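Re: beginner question about structure tokens

> Can someone show what the tokenized structure looks like for a real chain? I only ever see the sequence side.

Sure, here's an example I had lying around. Input first:
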Amino acid sequence: DIFTFQSSSQSAQSTSLPLPPSVNHKAKYKSNSIPKNPEEARRKRIELDAQVRRKHREQLITAKRFKHHLDVFKDDETTDSDNDLLKEDIEKLKSGLNNPSRKKRLSSLKDLSAYLVDPSETLKRFVIEGNCIEILTKFLSGIDPEEQLQATWCITNIAAGPKELCHKALVIVPYLISFLDGENIPLQDQAAWAIGNIAVEGAEYRNLLRANGVLVPLIKLLNSQDVNLVQTVCFALSNLARGPNAKLEEFFSMGITQHLFRHLEKDEMSEVVSEISWVLTYLTSDEDKYIQKLVEEGLAPVKHMRPLLSYGPLALPLIRTFGNIASSPDNNTIILINQPDFLSNMIEYIQSDCSRHPEVLTKVINTGFIPILSVIATHNNFDIRKEAAYSLLNIASHEFIRSQDVELIRLGLGYLEMLLTQVPDMQGIDALESVTFLEDQTLRSTACRLMDQFFGEEFSINVNEVTEISEMNEMK
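And the corresponding structure tokens:
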């Protein structure tokens, strides 16, 4: 059998248990989470930093989004304390919202939406316990399009706030959906923005939105020629498609893929492409049958790989989409790697189980990935190095030496020579020994087994004896 090295989410599939470690090594350590040396402490900091960066990258694109007024609070002397509204400030704001003057009402609506970006406790109580939503509903049900827009702006920022604030915005959902069906593009854009913020809050909120029929008008708006509106609509759709039980069949039955791929074919704006890719990421994250439908529609996102590489986080959803496709059945992966220029721009998919196919590995090798991956695995930041290492290990896991192909045999022998010569020079033994200090029992056992099997003496001992001696050492 051929075994591939996989990421942590797949490692649970391992079926073989490591041999028990020898007394020679297990007796030398105690299990705790305290770093044993500066190198281990540095490694843990790097891992934590990588996790935080990965979380921030996704939040940068998919988290709730406030909408700011550029013409409010332009005075440089404005500070955070100015937003700490008092009770009398709230009363003044309410008075302005109910003022007979349209100009005064619009000004108060702008002030309210600006304050809602970072609401004070007094303002939160006004939204949760007061009649704020009732006042905004009056504007939404009116006939003045500018007042409707500014009120929807307020709802957008309410929905972007804490859950207790977002919950109050649910009663506004019918108005938001009706705006999507209208012809006022700024109002459609703002309504889609508010819906996207509500959808982020949780599965029950997404279910309520879908039950109210939000998908039909949103997907219809993908026909718009306004790129900013399409971008906002995709923000809402990606948040509606996230999570388990997202009922993706509804998305596909409405022909969402044709709309998305059409925009990918003609749109060049990186922000729009990124938002579309987030929708595709969630559409490909559930079941293989949905991935199959996307692959059958075409792989237009491939053309945007190179342009997005220089835009940092904007490329993340595109990479995740291809990763989802690569982890699906083999025929999808083969279609993916046959796309022009795909292999020259992408390495993440190699960690998939599909990498065990000889034709895939041949293309990877011929494209010159081995030296590139080797450099990445030693010089880039932690999470990228990890993916490159998975790729190299998957390539190395193939039985090249037992192949009948002379070039593959030569490659396999070259890999063995590199392995045997580099392990001592690169302090591989010290690296193995450092793993024996980790808390994870499986990792410790595997490291000890490798130390004894390849760099020391093998002992035939009783497992109970090993455990007893280890416990005695830990009591000392």
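Each token stands for a local structural state, so reading them left to right follows the chain. The CA atoms of residues 280 and 456 lie 51 Å apart.
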